[in-house]
Amino acid sequence: MEYTSIFDSHAHYDDAKFDEDRDELISSLPSKGIIGVINCGADLKSSAQSVKLSEKYDYIYAAVGVHPHEAKNFGDDTLNELRRLAANKKVVAIGEIGLDYYYDFSPREKQIEVFEKQLILAAELNLPVIIHNRDAHEDTLNILKKHRPKGVLHCFSGSAETAREIVKLGMFIGLGGAVTFKNAKKPLEVAATVPDEFLLIETDAPYMAPVPFRGKRCDSAMIPYTAEKIAEVRNTTAQEILNLTAENAKRLFGID
Ligand code: NI
């Protein structure tokens, strides 16, 4: 089955896992139906690389931001550097930013401080945010209620109940390969219940490859497997899911 209108709202093609064949792979994606990719930064270096990729490829857009794992390295100048990068016209979001209490690679107080600084930057620049949240649902929700950004909870791992709270704030839910995994009960409940206008689809490439590629290097061409699973629980077709999520991504990120 050939699919079109695939918009991958979250990928990391700057990752070293693509060093061997990055250009060849990225050049091949439009022929597989991919019409858009948001390449997300996780620190200043990967944010700058995201901008470079977006300048090189028409259909790639960039998000710049500092991931909670890297929050401990967020210095006095980091915010200005992000502001400078965000001035590029292919930068469509601040991300990925958020909280990760599963790994706790940065102290939680520092994660919160850096998250809030970047939410304030996004508001200043009138850009949506791409949010990473792992095992920090309560703090994430409280901070979002305080700042009320536009944006998406990427690779959403919470309950259908939490998803409802997020949607009430006008934010999007990003679903990826996890919906295809065995024991995907929670993600499938979320996939079944998110309102049409708040659903996005993503890879988190090179991670989170959907079944039957689980554990392998992931790329945007694998999204149809995720779309098929989401379509199954929403009683529609994978192509309808791809059309819908592409429209939603363009609307959220201000892409024509
Ligand atoms: Ni990511």
Task: Give a quick set of tags describing it.
8 strands, eight-stranded parallel β-sheet, 256 residues, single chain, alpha/beta, binds nickel (II) ion, globular
Adjacency order of strands in the biggest sheet: 1-2-3-4-5-6-7-8
Q: pLDDT under 50 segments (min length 5)?
A: none
User: What share of the residues does DSSP label as strand, in percent?
Assistant: 15-25%
- Heteromolecules bound: nickel (II) ion
- Gyration radius from CA atoms, angstroms: 17 Å
First-to-last CA distance = 27 Å
Secondary-structure element pattern, one letter each: EHEHEHEHEHEHEHEHH
The global form is: globular
Structural class based on helices, strands and sheet pairing: alpha/beta
- Major sheet: 8 strands, parallel
* Helical content (DSSP H or I, runs of 4+): 40-55%
Your description of this structure?
It is a single chain. With about 260 residues, the chain is of the alpha/beta class. It has nine helices and eight strands. The chain has an eight-stranded parallel beta sheet with strand order 1-2-3-4-5-6-7-8. Helix 6 links the parallel strand 6 and strand 7. The protein binds nickel (II) ion (NI). The site of nickel (II) ion has 5 residues, from loops.
